[in-house]
Every structure is written in structure tokens, then in C-alpha cells.
Amino acid sequence: MSVPVLKASMLSNAGAHAPVLIAGPSLGTSAAALWSSTAAALENYTVIAWDLPGHGASPAATEPFTIAELADAVAGIVSSARTAADIGPGQPVYYAGVSLGGAVGLQLGLDHGGDFDGLAIMCSGAKIGEPAGWTERAETVRSQGTPAVLIGSAQRWFAPGFIERSPEASAALLHSLQDADRFSYAYCCQALAGFDVREKLGDITVPLLAVAGAADEVTPPSFAELIAEGASHGTSAVVAGAAHLVPAEKPAETADLLGNFFGSLSGAAHLEGK
To answer: Residue 129: which region, alpha, beta or left (left: phi > 0; alpha: psi -120 to 50)?
Structure first.
């Protein structure tokens, strides 16, 4: 096991004094495909999004890693940005991650809580699925490639009607899955197989918002409620008409939720999303 190399991209730049949102991806998606529309709607935030190993801009992984090691890598991105003065000493830093990226967010709250002023855990859980299921999917993708899970992912990711309403957005997400490195995807599955922080949620003291899509069958609203109830300072919200990729399915609603939550933490009106 080792800390993987991750690459981050700036999706929007609101200036030197704006709050910074670190945005995390879901398994199989690129950060740009998942977050670009929400980043555009968060007009007063600088949004920096990171990619999973072998996804988007990040290089393929060469060995297994854990969710904790992914969290270490994300914390390293923030540290490097501070060292390079891309994030100034007075800028609040928030995190929002989807599914696997949400699991990383919970781990950040446990291991690197001092680096963040607030967390949004989206379409995720303190434990997602069962180890046997992740192991089986890892083997499938390792042997057959990511196209083997394309249809199943489309069924899980999107609420009914989204593909027809938003063909470009859905195509970009499915293409990012198809383009993902199969071995890195399998390593991500292995990391999720070993992830379970249900008994540790109370150790997360960073203010936390848990968000679920109303139509999400992978991590339903009950998962968000469990996170919010377990964390020291948690609250939850449900987005109607969305399934497992809320920032892509409902970018305006996502921007409002994040802007209002993070803005309430700072108490400054200019931090609100729009």
C-alpha cells in the first residue's frame, strides 16, 4: 500500500480572497465531467477538483491503496497549494466529495480535519456496499475493462430521464468511465471493500453536510442521515430528482446547498454560492 499520485485541476477561480472548494470525484468519473457545471454555478468560490488514480488527469496506480491513503494524497494537494500561495492564509478551505470522493471526505475529517473549515459528503456512506461485491467488480474490470460496467453504472448513476434531458453531460461522464484505467479502477474497488468508518463518525468534529439524491439506490438518504447523526456537527439534505451523481444531475441545487452551508459556517454573506 502507498499514497497514490493525484492530479488536481482548477475548475473556477474567484480570486485571491475567495473561499476554496476542493471537489472530489465518484468512482469511474473525471472531476471535470462531474463538477464543472456546479463549479460554474458557485460563482464566488474557487473550485479545485482532484481525479482518482487512472481517471481524468491522474496517472494510473501501480499498487493498491486505501481510502486513508487517498485522503493523505488530497491533504497533500491542499498543503502544496498553500506552499505555492495558490491558497492564501486567510482563505477558508472546504471539501465536497461524491461517493468514493465522499468516503475520502469522511477520512479527511478523521485524519486531516484541521485542514478544512467544512465538509460536504455527497451520495456516499460511512460504509458503501459489501466487500465481496467490490472484490467481484474489481476482478471483472481488471479482466474485462471498464466497458464491462458501463451499463450498470449508467443505471445506478442517473435518475430516470437525465440521459434524455442532458445527453452531453451524461455522455461526458460515461466516456470518463470508459477511459479510466482498468487496474486503477480495480484498486479503487479494493479500497472501498476495506472502508468502514461507521464507528468513528463521532470523531469527526469539522462541520459536515451529508447530501443524498432522492432516487439514489446505492447510497440512499438513510446513508446521509446516518452520517449526519453520527458526526459531531452534522446535518443532512436530500436532492429531489437526482440519483448518485448529484453535482452533475442538479448543479444549481448543489451550488445552493453548498453555498448556503459553507456560507453559514463563515457567517459572511459573500460566501453564499450565487
So the answer is: left
